[in-house]
Amino acid sequence: AxxxxxxxxxxxxxxxxxxxACRASCVxxxxxxxxxxxxxxxxxxxxxxxxxxxxxxxxxxxxxxxPSYxxxxxxxxxxxxxxxxxxxxxxxYSAWTTVTTFSVRNNFLTGTLPPSYSExxxxxxxxxxxxxFTGSLPASYGSWTYLTKxxxxxxxxxxxxxxxxxxxxxxxxxxxxxxxxxxxxxxSSMSGFFGSHNDFSGSLPATWSSLRMLG
Length: 215
Hints:
7-stranded parallel beta sheet; GP46-like surface antigen, putative; LRR_dom_sf; leucine-rich repeat
């Protein structure tokens, strides 16, 4: 028994798994570079604006309303706004007793307003704004008993607003003129009055109780 060597049982050892190391010297740096376009390959872009030569510009011809139009006795709507008309309003147009709409706005008309237009018995809209009319608003226009809209703004009118009695007048626009005096109490049916940039005095008439727009 003394010669027997004791047997020692050992479990097999698991060797550590060593991962191969990657040395810093073997790693190649990655460089990201943007594509380079050399100046020699870039073509300049030239933007050309359209050119209008003087030869293509059409001259503007100013023409006056013809008095001969007064022969059109059945005229009901005369609308020639936004044109290049000049001269004065012909008195011959007073023959249009059936006209309901008269508009010459945004032109170059001058002179005074013909009092004879009071013969228009059916006119409902009268627009002469944005012209160069002078003188006063004719008192005779008070006979327009069916008028609903009168626009005479941006002219050179002076004097006062007449004591018109227009029972159906809804809107009166006379801003940017040289009108003065007090406002007439007779225009009691209006819902809109635009009279800024004038020389009016006094206060708003108490009879203007229907006003909804004031400027």
